[in-house]
Design a protein that fits this description.
There is one protein chain. The protein has 353 residues and is α/β, with parallel strands linked by helices. The protein has 2 domains: 208 residues, Rossmann fold, CATH 3.40.50.970; 109 residues, Rossmann fold (3-Layer(aba) Sandwich). 40% of the residues lie in helices and 19% in strands. It is built from 12 helices and 14 strands. Helix 10 crosses helix 11. The protein is globular, with a radius of gyration of 21 Å.
Length: 353
């Protein structure tokens, strides 16, 4: 078994990115993800990498665009309002079919909101992340180990499908400390014949661009891109099921909310209530199939969220409204307690137990 070390979630992301072959990081400090930038600032110069604190979030994401166009693995990180500032650049990355890893350690909003944990950027991440027709692969860790593992996975998926990938964590995940194994083998860089690396007079010029002034040409590229997205939906869905075999009530939750939900589920089962959990790991592509299957056997689904209710819409779509789907939530930086989730379970079961 590989040795484990105690790390913050933010630090685990940074170290895993380096293990995955990322030698370029551009960012701007914002709570609660600043430890990622601080870690990269210390580590990158020691390994011959590039760390640069940009003058703004907008500058940082455009630096990511530039490095990605050369075929190098590159990442940036921020928190909620900072991701909003990066959204134009994220759309440019998608429009130019450029891979990159973007980390959002979410805080409360809207606006400046607060610096406590949130999951209220779900819509922003899964429904685009910027202007135009595009998708990002969105990965939602629920442990420090997954913060690291999904970082490595995120780089691989971004390269495989030539699209931006986002780690969507909440502030709790970024700040909590847990033992983590970082025993990764750095993979050989994927061949990127599209990269702008200089022709050496041996090939045609590569052009990285997201501007298409002819509407028929832009339409063609959008249709082609969405055919690629279908492949992602068919092959890259990830989720966890917990005690769903005999479940009569299903909890839908991701990130820290899923960990809280497991405690409530265990307590409910002590009281004879058959409850299970479906935890999406990919928020896009969303795990439609397990929720659709659950809707044929459970009597109620509860979406536990650190928001006013965003993922609940995808749960309802997946279940085709066959069963009631209700919300158990806190927002603004507050976190649901196991007792609150248990109360929601009891209510869904027909009353207190």
């Amino acid at each position: 078994m590989a040795d484990k070390i105690l790390m913050k979630g933010n630090e685990a992301i940074a170290e895993a990115a380096i293990k995955a072959g990322c030698m370029h990081y551009f960012g701007y400090p914002i709570t609660p993800q600043t430890e990622i930038a601080a870690y990269m600032a210390k580590k990158m110069p020691k390994i011959g990498g590039c760390f640069l604190q940009a003058e703004s979030e907008i500058a940082a994401i455009n630096m990511v665009y530039g490095v990605s166009s050369t075929g190098k693995r590159v990442m940036t990180s921020s928190s909620s309002p900072g991701i909003s500032l990066k959204s134009e650049g994220i759309s440019y990355l998608a429009g130019a079919d450029l891979p990159a890893l973007i980390v959002n350690v979410q805080r409360g909003g809207p606006g400046l909101g607060g610096i406590q944990p949130s999951q209220s950027d779900y819509f922003q991440a899964t429904k685009g992340g910027g202007h135009g027709d595009f998708k990002m692969i969105v990965l939602a860790p629920s442990s420090v180990q997954e913060m690291a593992d999904l970082t490595v996975k995120g780089f691989d998926l971004a390269d495989k499908y030539r699209m931006p990938t986002m780690i969507l964590a909440d502030g709790t995940m970024g700040q909590m400390m847990e033992p983590v194994s970082l025993d990764y083998e750095v993979k050989t860089t994927v061949e990127k014949p599209w990269a702008t690396t200089g022709t050496k007079m041996e090939r045609e010029h590569n052009i990285v661009n997201s501007l298409f002034l002819q509407p028929d040409e832009l339409e063609k590229f959008n249709f082609e891109r969405f055919e690629r997205y279908k492949v992602v939906e068919e092959n890259e869905v990830m989720y966890e099921e917990y005690l769903m075999d005999d479940a009569e009530i299903c909890i839908a939750a991701f990130g820290i909310a899923a960990r809280i939900a497991k405690n409530a589920i265990n307590e409910a089962r002590k009281n004879g209530i058959k409850v299970g959990l479906i935890r999406p790991i990919t928020l896009w592509p969303f795990p439609v199939a397990p929720f659709k299957k659950a809707a044929d056997k459970v009597k109620h689904i509860i979406s536990v969220e650190l928001s006013m209710g965003q993922m609940i819409e995808d749960v309802r779509l997946a279940t085709e409204c066959k069963v009631p789907v209700t919300l158990c939530n806190r927002t603004g930086g507050m976190i649901p307690s196991p007792e609150q989730v248990l109360e929601a379970i009891n209510k869904a079961n027909g009353g207190a137990k």
